[in-house]
């Protein structure tokens, strides 16, 4: 047993090495070229060792497949006080290592303009002396543009000139900061070719309990002390007031996880009508005019009336000092950066990834494509295979409940659905960043100018007659479906092979990881929200009441399954919205059916669909790879917040429900009728 553990440890070290961004060669003299037969065998053995190290083979796969697949994951990858752990986090860490490597390369005359710009930005972040010297003075200077922060100015802040509505508009106009009011420029859900202004509830508001309040108060308190030099008592009191105000804002907010139909929260109206409704305290006409610098007379969407009514009350009853501290605290996080000479390169690479995610993704995509030119083509081929499989499912006579017209609409939507790897599409960076000035010696000035540019771009989006093709709204760490574009986007980090898949691994791993992940996102186009939209991203609910009734019956089957489950002793809430569970249910069936077709077409390669020291059949390897792509560990004290706020159920529950609803899983593992994952009743969407 000790020999097996030692061998596994050595092979895990090897797979960690071959996942480094340095390319195919592993440092040292073990071997120099992974394309040789010997190199490929070592890679297969390393992958086997990794998969075995996650598994608890004492668990019965037919009762607890997550435990069987991931039971030992936490032993090697346990959550810490700083972060939870998952396979995707390992991939993102590899992505960041590559970003650091690319940004550390010397500036060359052949660099494209944005590459030079981001390297200058990176250099400014490495100047730890300048960061320490200028941080507080730069922040206070920015705060004083808006009259200063009461917590900092003390008795000299009288509030005589403070106008909450004016300050909200100016923070948005100058630096793109959302404070009390959500302001978004997005395609009209009825006509995706027209941009509309949405005014109302902030999208990032979530319910907050006492434990979450305490954590947030401490976070803000430390930020006030460290960045602004406030005394502990004043920082604590200010943080408490900020968090309590946010809790009041959340009181009448709609839960996006429950109320997903845009018709339930948005009403097309004129600013003059909103001003008449909410009065002088929340004069929306004046707010928008101050923000844009001119009158705006086109229709806008009023989002969540209950939230706006609550905001009106808060503005009328909250002391100006508290309102000002709350609003201006929105600027602090942007200027907060750790200074640690021994880790500054990693810190700055991660910060640049957050500040300019589209540019960084483009750099990483080009780097990965140069290293492995075939990867993007392989992913596009896999996408086409999955689409073909789902077309067969939607066209099947088994879907008798789906009438011909809605079926034709769904097939048209599927045909038009596109796929894109983040960073892979040429973008007009000149339009996005052309006015940006970056200095290699002024990090905080660079941040300030970038925020100002983003604020200007938000205004420009409103002036555009149609939606932009830029789907970036921060770092892209997870695949997602873009409703208005009818498109699936895969993060650039998924182009890193050997984390999930590789040409020398069994194809079962590719279909069970990337196949399932893309199938999940493809299925999102047909979940309980996105089925309302047509192939052009316009809301067009044409289903008959009878068809909806059957669809909702199947959806409720999934909801009941999850509501019966517990996670770390916590009962999972029963939710109306089932988009993620529908995507799981359909996505794994798409991926498995696509792999089954591959096996049938490549029967001569069946012997290669195994891994050393692993007795699993090809079908079992498929399901094992699905589950292991979801191995994770969440610190015990963070689990209640996860259950309350995450759109996904816990991964343990997701794996259980997916396998319990898959008859082919029970057949692959020969599960008896008395086992939990071979139930008498299964739920299936489509």
From TrEMBL:
UniProt cofactor(s): Zn(2+)
Residue ranges of domain Peptidase M13 N-terminal in the record: 61-421
Lineage, opening ranks: Eukaryota, Metazoa, Ecdysozoa, Arthropoda, Hexapoda
Keyword Hydrolase part of the UniProt annotation: yes
Family: Belongs to the peptidase M13 family.
Alphabetized UniProt keyword annotations: Hydrolase, Metal-binding, Metalloprotease, Protease, Signal, Zinc
Any single GO BP term: protein processing
Single GO MF annotation: metal ion binding
Cellular location(s): Cell membrane
Chief place of localization: membrane
SUPFAM superfamilies according to UniProt: Metalloproteases ('zincins'), catalytic domain (SSF55486)
Gene: Dana\GF17990
Name of protein: Uncharacterized protein
């Amino acid at each position: 047993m000790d020999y097996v553990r030692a061998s596994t440890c050595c092979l895990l070290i090897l797979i960690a090495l071959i996942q480094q961004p340095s390319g195919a060669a592993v440092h040292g003299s073990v071997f120099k070229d992974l394309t040789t037969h010997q190199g490929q065998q070592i890679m297969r053995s390393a992958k086997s060792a990794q998969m075995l190290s996650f598994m608890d083979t004492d668990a019965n796969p037919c009762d607890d497949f997550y435990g069987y697949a991931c039971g030992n994951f936490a032993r090697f990858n346990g959550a810490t006080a700083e972060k939870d752990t998952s396979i995707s986090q390992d991939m993102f860490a590899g992505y960041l290592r590559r970003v650091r490597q690319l940004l550390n390369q010397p500036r060359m005359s052949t660099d494209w303009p944005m590459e030079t710009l981001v390297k200058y930005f990176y250099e400014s972040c490495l100047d730890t002396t300048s960061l320490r010297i200028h941080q507080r003075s730069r922040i206070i200077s920015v705060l004083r543009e808006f009259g200063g922060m009461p917590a900092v100015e003390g008795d000299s802040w009288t509030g005589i000139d403070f106008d909450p509505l004016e300050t909200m508009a100016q923070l948005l106009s100058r630096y793109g900061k959302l404070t009390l009011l959500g302001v978004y420029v997005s395609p009209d859900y009825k006509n995706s070719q027209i941009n509309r202004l949405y005014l109302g509830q902030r999208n990032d508001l979530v319910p907050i309990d006492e434990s979450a309040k305490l954590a947030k108060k401490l976070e803000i308190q430390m930020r006030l002390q460290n960045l602004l030099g406030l005394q502990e008592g004043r920082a604590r009191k200010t943080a408490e007031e900020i968090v309590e105000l946010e809790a009041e804002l959340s009181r009448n907010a709609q839960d996006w996880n429950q109320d997903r139909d845009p018709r339930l929260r948005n009403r097309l109206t004129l600013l003059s009508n909103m001003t008449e409704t909410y009065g002088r305290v929340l004069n929306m006409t004046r707010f928008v005019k101050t923000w844009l610098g001119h009158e705006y007379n086109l229709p806008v969407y009023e989002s969540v009336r209950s939230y706006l009514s609550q905001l009106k009350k808060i503005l009328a009853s909250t002391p100006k000092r508290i309102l000002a501290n709350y609003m201006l605290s929105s600027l602090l996080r942007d200027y907060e950066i750790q200074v640690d000479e021994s880790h500054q390169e990693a810190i700055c690479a991660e910060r640049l990834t957050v500040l300019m995610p589209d540019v960084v993704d483009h750099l990483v995509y080009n780097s990965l494509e140069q290293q492995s030119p075939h990867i993007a083509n392989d992913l596009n081929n896999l996408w086409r295979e999955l689409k073909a499989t789902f077309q067969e499912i939607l066209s099947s006579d088994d879907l008798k409940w789906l009438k011909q017209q809605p079926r034709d609409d769904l097939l048209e939507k599927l045909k038009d659905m596109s796929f894109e790897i983040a960073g892979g599409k040429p973008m007009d960076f000149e339009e996005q960043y052309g006015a940006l000035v970056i200095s290699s010696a002024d990090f905080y000035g660079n941040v300030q100018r970038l925020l100002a540019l983003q604020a200007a771009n938000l205004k420009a989006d409103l002036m555009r007659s149609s939606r932009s093709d830029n789907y970036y709204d921060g770092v892209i760490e997870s695949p997602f479906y873009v409703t208005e574009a009818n498109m699936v986007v895969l993060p650039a980090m998924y182009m890193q092979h050997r984390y999930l898949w590789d040409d020398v691994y069994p194809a079962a791993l590719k279909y069970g990881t990337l196949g399932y992940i893309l199938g999940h996102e493809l299925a999102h186009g047909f979940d309980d929200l996105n089925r309302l939209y047509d192939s052009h991203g316009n809301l067009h609910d044409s289903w008959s009441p009878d068809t909806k009734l059957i669809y909702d019956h199947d959806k409720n089957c999934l909801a009941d399954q999850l509501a019966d489950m517990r996670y770390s002793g916590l009962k999972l809430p029963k939710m109306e919205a089932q988009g993620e569970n529908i995507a799981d249910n359909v996505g794994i069936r798409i991926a498995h059916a696509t792999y089954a077709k591959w096996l049938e077409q490549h029967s001569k390669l069946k012997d290669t669909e195994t891994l050393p020291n692993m007795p699993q059949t090809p079908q079992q390897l498929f399901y094992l790879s699905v589950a292991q792509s979801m191995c994770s560990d969440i610190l015990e004290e963070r689990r209640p917040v996860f259950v309350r706020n995450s759109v996904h159920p816990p991964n343990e529950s997701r794996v259980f429900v997916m396998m319990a609803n898959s008859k082919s899983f029970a057949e692959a593992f020969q599960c008896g009728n008395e086992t939990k994952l071979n139930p008498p009743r299964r739920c299936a969407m489509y």
